[in-house]
Amino acid sequence: MPILQTHGVSVRYGDVRALTDVSLSVQEGHVHGVIGPNGAGKSTMMNVLSGAQRASQGRVMFDGHDITSRAVRWRRRHGISRSFQRTSIFPGMTVREQLALASRDDTVQMRLVAGAFGLSGLLDRQADTLAYGDQRRVDIALAAVGKSRLLLLDEPAAGLTAQETADLFGHVCALAREEGLTALIVEHDVEAVFGSCDVVTVLDLGEVLTSGAPDAVRTDPDVIKAYLGTAG
Amino acid sequence: MTTPRLKVSQRSRPSEELAADRRAASWRLRLGVAAVVMALGYLVPSAVGSVSTMTVLFNGIVLGLMALSVGFLLNTLGWVTFGAAAFSGGAAYIFGILCVSHGTAVLPSAISAVLVATVASLLIGLIFVRSKALVFTILTLALGQMVLQLVSLDSLSNTTGGSNGLVVNYHGSFLGLSSAALAKPGQFWYVAWTLVMLAVIAVIIISTSRLGRLLRGIRENEPRLQHSGYDTYWPKVLAFGFAGLLGAVAGVLQAMSIAFVSTDLLTFGASGTAIVAALIGGYRSPYGPVIGGVLLTYGENFFGSSGNLFLYTGIGIVVVLVAFPGGIADLAGMLWRLGVTRVRARPAGGR
What we know:
- The complex is a heterodimer of chains A (232) and B (351).
- With 232 residues, chain A is α/β, with parallel strands linked by helices.
- Chain A has 9 helices and 10 strands.
- Chain B has a two-stranded antiparallel sheet with strand order 1-2.
- The interface between A and B is large, with 48 and 30 residues.
């Protein structure tokens, strides 16, 4: 059953088309990856889905309800949360303080998410004293706490080492499997996406090139031609 | 639409309970310290014999209350306001006008002035808090200048006294204090000290409350807080209104003690002095602005007799802020922590 669907979503900046007629379906409990070259419209799509940006055309459905005109706060309160391409945390607060803030003092859930992302030992550290990889995990944990049903992760592996990326995707997949969360991950690291996601969608020049199981997408001639290259 | 939470099987919560215990202990300690400081403050008039010193201390804590208003916005939201005088001076003028033009008794005049200034602060906050930090600062500067110009208008001089100011004649008594008693800092001290300390305690309570945490979240990263599902607009309006309330109380106390209001209370210099007091004392501590207010008033009084008030006061401010960027309260906190560390490090039974 799809938890999130977009129908013909388009976004224009003047004469420039960032997204054109994008239709997407994300199944509940899946880890759904979105890949595409720079300028493909991935971040624009994340902004439309999280409510930070309005679509010029089309509809966004969440759990069977039309949420196209709903604001960021409404979407967050109904289970759509996101992390950011550039780490967005509360630098002057401890990890515990900010997770408590984001979870509305749900300490049980806080502990669960902190444990899932390997932050249990860092709870009393001020966030701006953490290593970059830890800050990325705090960013994603902030999205995961507080009635989250759908995690929108915008390039979560940006700036991470290969090992950190593998660990991070492992944490997200484990959380999705064990807690029934759905994750939509926009990511440049193609191998991490193919290795972890249930479904992969490829965006190119603001349009959906293809969508399907990782193996099918990896061998799709259009994808190889447009994005992965012949070596893929 | 359903919004199920993460499923949880674990039961024990030692880490959270420890953190909650620490927070509760810290909260109790802060209130305990505030109660002790408040009690000690009541001994000041009997300990200080000199009227001039008492006047400096009285004016110092009133300036400190205004600085607390400025420091509260600076600490919780990271906002600098150049318009603090609009609310303190504005409330002083409302108080004076009610007493003089309408013949209202001193207590209802004082309460009405504080209420009107606080409501005005909330209403102005509805507009101002939509702005980013720098624009907010400029808006408050503009507000201060507008209020100053307003009371200086010739067409209102019959009510406001224009550039001559307004001599305030009291009707009735204020909490048992006659107009003569209000003019004596040693007698008015108890009321003023109580209000200043209640303001300090209110700042402590707000800072440690959910609202305070929310305000810090806004200061740290407002867009992220919005993406965490929070409304960030109304907390900012409330913070601005609370700052206005503190400023208004300071303004009315000042007007009551000197029985005179003038445009000096509304100048940019008046707002600037409050900012300087907050910085010197240390705005991160609820006591810092009050300490700063007393130190700055003392410094101005001390250097004023030399005829080079601004030169010497300026040098003093530069020295304090360069040596102790976090203000005097920050320095006191550092010394306290150093002392505690040394006591803990000393071996038991050691010499």
